[in-house]
Design goal:
Length: 322
Amino acid sequence: MRVKFDGVKESVKHKINTSLRMYINQEHTDYPPHWHTDIEIIWIKESPYKVVCGTQTYDLEEGDILLVCPAVLHEIFSLSFGTRVYIQADFSRLSVLKEIDKAFRLMSPALHIKKRNCPENLYAQLCDHLDEIKELYFGSAPPVQMSEGRLGHSLMSFTELDPYGELEIYSILMHFIVLCGKNIALFQAPEAASSAAAYKNTLSLSNVCAYLSEHFTEDISLEDVAAFAGFSKYHFERIFSDYAGTTFYQYLQQMRINYAQTLLSNPELSITDISYQSGFASSTAFTRAFRKSTGYPPSQFRMLNEAKHPLPANPMFADLKK
């Protein structure tokens, strides 16, 4: 079943008195383009799934985990009936932690953790964290229907968390993100990079990406960053393209667009303000680049924000204790 909506932004219905939401989706339903300020973790329990984040397509297999960064426009395609675990959490109030913001910029638009490629011990740790969150979130409470969404879709919620339960879940999520951040080169580097030279380049370029996450809004050039990495301009340009799958300037521009997507959740900022704060030379250049990247002009993208234009709640929720 394909659910189609025009010009909508999804509204995340958090558990009462928290900034968290967790559920299992088992239905064969597509979701149209939308974005929200929450991070979203999708854990594939069975059957393939496809998620499009911006211009990136992620084909998820059984056991894979996808972390969708905040303010990323994404669309979900269910290829068949199956079980997927969803976790959504608002990290906007934690953006004062610079490393959180940096981690999301490095992972953006999403981080795909493939079960078949992930080291067994690391994968087990990540899954254990998700299971811990499930246990804390659901406990032994039965699902309670709280309200009706649009189009007759029922919204299922649960009793309140135990005292400090939300804080405990956030601490687990933080550790999950730390594990992802520390191993990001492993998840994103080409699988064929096995030689010592390739490994050395991967470490250097991982540092470059971290550097860019701190300085992407500034007037920086290919020459500046190549010198920072300790490579000649031409060698750096080649190995960076191999590592990132895109040119240096395209990568830099996409970081600026990703940041602009986050700023668009603030209604007090004008499009012009956002363009300059994101590192673009003019609002015209920003609008052109933004439309090319997302398919939408900034003003229309802002209207796809779920907080203002909620999608109907998913009609199929399953008890996580199964």
